[in-house]
Amino acid sequence: MExxxxxxxxxxxxxxxxxxxxxxxxESPDTLTYRRYVGGSALALYYLLKHLPKGVDPLGxxxxxxxxxxxxxxxxxxxxxxxxxxxxxxxxxxxGESEAGGWWGPELKKAGFDAILVQGRAPKPVYLWIHxxxxxxxxxxxxxxxxxxxxxxxxxxxxxxxxxxxxxxGPGAEKLVRLGCIINELRHANGRTGMGAVMGSxxxxxxxxxxxxxxxxxxxxxxxxxxxxxxxxxxxQPADMHDLGTPRLVTGLDADGILPTRNFIKGHxxxxxxxxxxxxxxTMFVGAGTCYGCPIACKRxxxxxxxxxxxxxxxxxxxxxxxxxx
Length: 326
Prior knowledge:
alpha+beta; Aldehyde Ferredoxin Oxidoreductase,  A, domain 1; Aldehyde Ferredoxin Oxidoreductase Protein, subunit A, domain 2; 6-stranded mixed β-sheet; 12 helices; 29% helix
């Protein structure tokens, strides 16, 4: 069967980066690749299988770190903001992939790229700056060792655009902690399979992205109808995801006896009420954050102004998974 034309929603370009020699270039996958693998983890796995040599060290320069979006990422659709980070995992030695929401994925699409393939290892710490079809590597030596908030502010100041979106690693991933995360916009995490450690092994501190391009849509009216339908139906539902976020699951799952207490040794936690969503709202909740295109705003923003447990609200707040891990 002959496929005709690039699928709407894609730019038709991926960014290739070789950190070893500093080369940055663009490739245009054929239409069949897009239609066959669609995006996300499937497209990421395709590139890993295509380019990774057998037996490669997950923390060596031969590993490939792939960032992929989806066909609907970047469109104003709830739940469509997510992107995938994938590589050979330093935790398992097998396929590692992790998804994150927020604003970074849509910004990458609007900057003109559907995916990024990062290979090699930089001779010194660097960050990648992508903006409306252009990309360059910049020195990050002064950022190495800094926590995410400090790096976030420094990179935005250097690129001169406060609307730039930043995915980065902190000191733990720099030191190759095998469960290291990639954090975007200070509060959204690719938290599984050690993708932050892979990024650290490549001495890649961050990827900053800024895009203003409009993405192609096959049916503008149909897209608007979907948005309208979701908003109207969401507002009719009694679910409290906006008011309480994912922490609302703590007390409910505790009541059902399936809270993963002490690594599932027990299904109940005696102080679940003290760490649940309602307690959070009564004590430290200051606002609700959201991901691109989503009206639910389930993200918690919390603040503790004084004392040994101070919390800066720009880092967001704990999700269900964080609380349940206690």
